[in-house]
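Bit of a strange request maybe. I'm writing a small parser for structure token strings and I need a real example to test against, not something I typed by hand. Could someone generate the tokens for this chain?
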Amino acid sequence: MATVSISEAARLAGIARSSLYKYYIKTGKLSLSQNGGKRPVIDTSELLRVFGSISSVDTLDNTVTPDRIQKVTDENCSLSSATDAQKLTDMAVMTETIKGQRAMLEQLQQENEWLKDLINDLRNDVKQLTHQKTEPIAPAIKPLQVRSWWRFW
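Reply from user aminoacidic:
Good idea to test on real output. This should exercise your parser:
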């Protein structure tokens, strides 16, 4: 069979190169061989033995074409009408639930603001009843006099 480099083997297996080294080569699950230039290569039969199936490089191409978009939408849109109807009813129920939750949230926010205003009013009433000043006066501190060290005695 054909041999591929380690980077190419990682691409074909669909995993990172570091993961291929760490979990497969160092543990002995995959065996390496040397090509003519003394570079390590992996036989594709080894990849098939370990991973079962490998993807070709063409399928790993990430370019977006209209054919690929059509293929993906055809695969995703092949639902039966029963599951479609069930999904639509579920979505309608969820939409109504979300509307109810939003209304409840708005009501709770208004109640929270009202309670904050009530607490502030009550604090002001307590301050007026107890004649407390809004800013406490700090006691006057006398500044220390600087004296020479020989005047201690």
